[in-house]
Amino acid sequence: MPVVDGYIFPKPPLEIYAAGEQNRVPLMAGSNSEEGGFNSVLGPDEPTVENYKKALQSRFHDHAEDAFRVYPASGDGEAVKDAAQSLASDLFIGYSTWKWIALASKTGNQPTYYYYYTHPRPAVRPESEGKFKGWWTYMWEGKAYPRAAPRGAVHSAEIEYAMGTLDGNDVYAWTPKDYGMSKSLQSYFVNFIKTGNPNGAGLPAWPTYDKGQRMVLDLDSHPETDDAAARGEFLENTLFKK
Fold first, then answer.
1. For the whole model, what pTM was predicted?
2. The three-state (H, E, C) secondary structure of the chain, written as one string
3. Taking the domains of the chain in order of start, what are their residue ranges?
4. pLDDT tens for residues 209-231?
5. What pLDDT score was predicted for residue 240?
6. Which of 100, 136, 156, 225 is buried most, with the most CB atoms less than 10 Å from its CB?
């Protein structure tokens, strides 16, 4: 949690943005498609609807059925993994990022740009697999379990694309598509840094968040109607309710 030191943060950031007391500058922020893995919700249990509902019950209690409606799974397997991954990502950073953007759009009187980054890194090079020995496990109730392979864009995956530093990371087998993704992401970021607006020549148009849309950043970047609001409001009224 942020330290309310009376100088950088004279009061909690949530209160600052709710009151419109933040610095009035454009904002671009977002989250990735796999900020948290499905194992952080399911643990070592198999990805069945039954196990998923049990996990929701232990976390949301009387609101478990509502949680299943907000984070639905149509069947066992991949559908459960998708739903649990979406919930895990929101609990880690997705919700707080959406809340930041939503409040800034409401009170800041400046343009806000919201992104959802979905481009996964490529495969790990065989000679680099040894570097991941510690990463391939996770802890659950004091015991280590094998971590599932990434299913999307994991936390921080967009950074090296945006900074143009793919060649500085020899762990992954970068492809021409990855370099193309990096070029477009660099363009968005540089345009925003220069002008407060990520849009520019040759790039898919990125609308401001006040239009209710976020930008899906991938090989086929495109705007879509934001679905984070319904999930965020549910989490606010259950887990995060004061």
1. 0.92
2. CCCCCCCCCCCCHHHHHHCCCCCCCCEEEEEECECCCCHHHHCCCCCCHHHHHHHHHHHHHHHHHHHHHHCCCCCCCHHHHHHHHHHHHHHHHHHHHHHHHHHHHHHCCCCEEEEEECCCCCCECHHHHHHHCCCCEEEECCEEEECCCCCCCECCCCHHHHHCCHHHCCCECCCHHHHHHHHHHHHHHHHHHHHCCCCCCCCCCCCCHHHCEEEEECCCCEEEECCHHHHHHHHHHCCCCC
3. 27-237
4. 988 899 999 999 999 998 888 99
5. 86
6. 100
